[in-house]
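Provenance

Sequences were taken from public entries as deposited. Structures were produced by running a predictor on each sequence independently, with no templates supplied. The record for Dam-replacing family protein from Neisseria musculi is shown for reference.
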Amino acid sequence: MNLYFDTRLAEGYKSASQITRVLTENWMGAQVYCPNCGCKPIQKAANNCPVQDFLCARCDEQFELKSKNGKTAGKMINDGAYQTMIERIQADDNPNFFFLSYRKVDYSVQQLMLVPKHFMTVDMIIRRKPLPPTAKRAGWIGCTIDLSKVPESGKILLIQQQQIVAPETVRAQWQATLFLRQQQSSRKGWLLAIIKCLEQLPETFNLKQIYALEAKLALQFPKNKYIKDKIRQQLQILRDQGVIEFSARGQYRKSKSS
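Predicted structure for Dam-replacing family protein:
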């Protein structure tokens, strides 16, 4: 995998945003494989497809690309129209998201992170203020993607600190969470919240330790009055999916494959 953009493609462009789009999209289309089936390269989608930049010709997975100058994606990513993003995330064919970070001084790729579509939820999309009447697109409402709400298991690195991650590692991480696609939206939100809570706990933990996070979950799900019951329910699902193991009554262990 070549970690440098082909800057010759930017000749003739003056706009910084156009240059970035041309270089990043060309690099993705030439270098990146589908994490689901391994097909390479992924293909550029037709123009004017909302929240879809690439797709896999073999398995039909869709991908949206977000790029920024820097070492990592960070926690907040500015994006396009708020309502369009909400509709695409809620659609049956919602896309996976690639977050590409590059160094502008030499146009080299620093990080490429994939967030599978089953980790993307509506509460991650923050509505920005409408553009003022003096703006060219007065009233237009954009959005920001809050990546801090994504569990670490939902941040799959293909490139980190200019180092290429082995494709078999990437695909194993991808496969490990595909069960989330089968969950209803309401249940998926709870599962993602519990998975994020588990990341704060040691490899072996007990029910009391995860109950200590009840107040935090109550703020996230204010309509639910039976938080502890919901916690136990989600732990059961995660056990059935091999994410955690029950080692004894009230005792848990994170699976080595999770």
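The chain has two domains: 7-175, 185-254.
The chain has a mean pLDDT of 91.
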